[in-house]
Amino acid sequence: PGFSSVDYTAGRFIACGLFSLFWLLWQTLRSPARARRGLWPDVAQARGALGLSVLGYTGYYLLLVYGIADAGAALPALIIGTLPVWMMLLGKPDHLRWSALLPGLLLTAAGMALMMQVTAAAVEAAGTGHFWRGVLLAVAAMLSWLAFGLLNARWMRHHPGIKSTAWANWLGLAAGLGGLLLWLGWGSPWDSLVARPGFGAFVFVCAFTGIGSAWIASVLWNVASRRLSTSLAGQLV
């Protein structure tokens, strides 16, 4: 408590960006000149990383944390949890029949409706947020990451010469830049952040999620996107 949604989002991705920068610098220093080719992006690659970082990193996460603030943690997590379903449907193989998918889709929709009813009553009784605004923000976050997942997989397939780790570093740098701009524009002043109780825990959470949930997960997702169809990778995410 005591730290805003913008502070968490900016801190997480600044940590991711710093880790990516240190990794790139370390790789540059330890590799001969010929081996350093491909470590750093060109202009077109940097532009692609910036766009995708907004969809899958800073923009997605900011929408999600605002959604959680309004609607509580349970329902936004459930909405984000439908990502495997949407990615499977959008990448559906031709041989997979809609009749085979319909029972599961109907049960999923029914579960979502029941969860919304119960969660809306709990949030309204507590008076802690704006439930339906939070639902819309969570849906927007889900759509943002869905676009990222599909476009990122296509980018990886069209650039087979770029290593998964390098692409994760470029995305991390772009996300770090986005996080820095977000903090400078809407975040809490540095003096205010440092003075708040729990600042050390805040830094730890930002570093842990920025490196673990952003950078490491990105490397693994990039590797999977190269080796699996969108439909299968989407189900496994």
The overall strand count is 0
What shape does the CA trace take?
Answer: flat
Please report which band the strand proportion falls in: under 5%, 5-15%, 15-25%, 25-35%, 35-45% or over 45%: under 5%
Q: Treating each run of at least 4 consecutive H or I residues as one helix, how many helices?
A: 10
Protein architecture, described:
This protein is mostly helical. Helix content is 81%, strand content 0%. The chain is built from 10 helices and no strands. It has helices spanning 5-30, 43-71, 74-80, 83-90, 98-126, 131-158, 164-186, 190-195, 199-227, 230-236. It starts with a helix and ends with a helix. The relative contact order is 0.21. The model has no long low-confidence stretch (mean pLDDT 89).
Distinctive features:
single chain; 237 residues; mainly alpha
Give the helices and strands, then pairings:
Layout: H1 5-30, H2 43-71, H3 74-80, H4 83-90, H5 98-126, H6 131-158, H7 164-186, H8 190-195, H9 199-227, H10 230-236
Helix pairs in contact: 1-2, 1-7, 1-9, 2-3, 2-6, 2-7, 3-5, 3-6, 4-10, 7-9
Briefly say what this structure is:
The protein is an all-alpha fold and 237 residues long.
